[in-house]
Write a structure and sequence with these properties.
single chain, 345 residues, mainly alpha
Length: 345
Amino acid sequence: MIEYNKFIYDIIFAKIGSFNSLNLFLFIIFTFVFSLAIDVIFGELPGRIHPVVIIGSIINFFKNIFIKIKNKLSGLMLLLSTCIVSSVILYFIYFISKINSILLFIVFSILLSSSFSINMLLQTAIDVKNDLNESLEKARESVSYLVSRNTDELTEGFIVSATIESLTENITDSYVAPIFYYFIFVLVIMFNPVHESLYWLLLIPVLYRACNTLDAMVGYKTDELKDIGFFPAKVDDILNYIPSRIAGLYVVISSYILKLDGKNSFKIMMRDARNCPSPNSGYTMASTAGALNIKLVKKETYILGDENKEIEIDDIEKAVKLSKLSISLFTLTVLVLLIIFKVIL
C-alpha cells in the first residue's frame, strides 16, 4: 500500500511547485472531471457537512453582530469576515488533506464539486414538471421553494414560467460563474506560479460561493437588510457580470444545436435581458424565452420574450435540455482551452 501511494504521489504531485509540470496539470484536469462526476451522479453533499451550509452559518453569526451597525459598512464587514473565516477553514481542511495524496485528490474534488450545483439545478425543474402532471397544488408548493413570489394562486402557465426562470437564471451562479473564475485563476497561476497553488485555486470558487450566498441571504432592499445587504449585492452583481453574458451566449448556441429558434434566442436576449431588476439574471432567461418562443413573466417585475406560442408543461423539459447542453458546451470549452494553454506553455 505504501509503495502504491508513493507511486500515485509521484505521478500527480511531483514538482508540485512548478505549475508548468504535466503532473499538476493532470491533477487539475482529473479533479475537475471527478468533481463533475460527483455532482452529476451523487448530487449535493449532506447538509451538515456541505460547505455552502457552513458558509451560511458563518454569515448568520456575523450578520447578528454587524446588523446592529446602521450603515452600509456593516455589509462590507460582513463580507470580509465571512470570506476570511471561510478561507481559514478551507486552509485547515486543505492542510490536513495534504498528509495523503489520494486523500487530497478526493477532498479537493469534493470541495470543488460543492462550489457548483448541476444535478440539483436540473432536477428541481424536472420535479416541478412531474408535480404539475400530478396536481396544480403540489406544483405550487414545489415551485414556492424555487422563487420568492407568492405561488398560492399561480396558474399552470405561471408555474411553468417561474420554473424556467429559476432554472435558467441559476445557470450562471450555480455553475458558469464559479467555474469561470476557477478557469481564470488556473490560467493566472500557469503564468505566475504561487506557493500552495492548489489551495488558492480551490479558494477562488469557494469565495465566489460565499459572495453568492451572502447575496442570497442578505441582498434584499428591505428595511432590515438594505444597509447590510448593499455591499454583498453589489459584489455579486460585479462577479456575475461577465459569466452571465457568457452563459447567455451558450444558451443561444445550444438553441441552434437543438434546432430551437436560435435567431430569436439572440434577438430576445439582446432586447429583453435588461428588463430584469438584476443586471445579470436576464441574459439566460431571455435567451431561453427566445429559443422556446414563449413569454416569461414575473408579475409587476419583468416580461421576457414574445408569446409566439402558448407556454406549456413540456417547455420545462425543453428548458432543461437547453440548460444541460449549455452547461456541457461551457465545460467542454474550459477543458479544451486548458489543454490549448498547456500546449502553448
